[in-house]
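Hi, does anyone understand the following?
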Amino acid sequence: MDPRRLLVFREVARAGSLTAAARALGWTQPAVSQHLAALERSVALPLVLRGPTGTTLTEAGEVLLRRADAVAAELHAAGEELAALAQLRAGRVRLQAHPSAAATLVPDAVRALATSHPGVSVGLVEAEPPEALAAVEAGDADLALAFGYDAEPVGLGSLVWRPLLTEPVHLVLPRGAGSGAASGPRVELADLADADWIGGCERCRVHLVDCCRAAGFEPALRHETDDYVVVQNLVARGLGVTALPQSALTAYRHPGVRVVEEEALGHRVVGVAHRPGADQVPATAALLEEIRRVAT
């Protein structure tokens, strides 16, 4: 049964004549008559009786009118809900982000969206890039803030990648560390060949090991944690050295650590990934714009 024809029938029943229904709908009278006739053919029953003074409902028409009212109410409600989504009076965005982005980019972006469009809700899950990208690919998240070292992240698959910023990776040493090359004003990666190292997430560890090998040594990884607060607390107590991206140091900076620039550690590209077409969804597009604004 064609819902449009059902709504035309409903208007005929309410108006009491084909002419009045046509006027209310802004149609021609023949067009209304054609839709009504087609509906009657589809149900194989007469729905209205036509007379010189207008139309009256048959028993079948009375039954259908009750259903038509319910259909009209549901279609109206659906239209209202869709309008709310289109006008950002409602909506939901599921965001996954790695820890340093969750601490630096996300709060300001979500707060700005909540201020401009309070009806849009954002749900954040902290996740490293492999898990975040997989969640978006599977449809369990709408956006993933992720990173790759000197390139886009591995595992994008069919996702759209939008770079946001490039950040340096720094050496992080204990403040006031003893003597030797690591205590001087200029420290290079090779100077820490004999140090104990603290590794981060899997991709961070791989990048660190690759950089150390390029500098001529194999790092001794004594501790592993993807929590940059824990990492800095370990470093501050002299339990190792590490490498952290700028965003992690912006989010938290332990007073007992010393940060040293080292070009040999390269850079990290931070961006956002989404499924093709997701940037056309109003709520998702609005959060994307706020994230881009905060990142610049």
Notes: DSSP finds eleven helices and eleven strands in the chain. The chain has a mean pLDDT of 92. The domain at 167-265 is CATH 3.40.190.290 (D-Maltodextrin-Binding Protein; domain 2). The first strand starts at residue 48 and ends at 51.
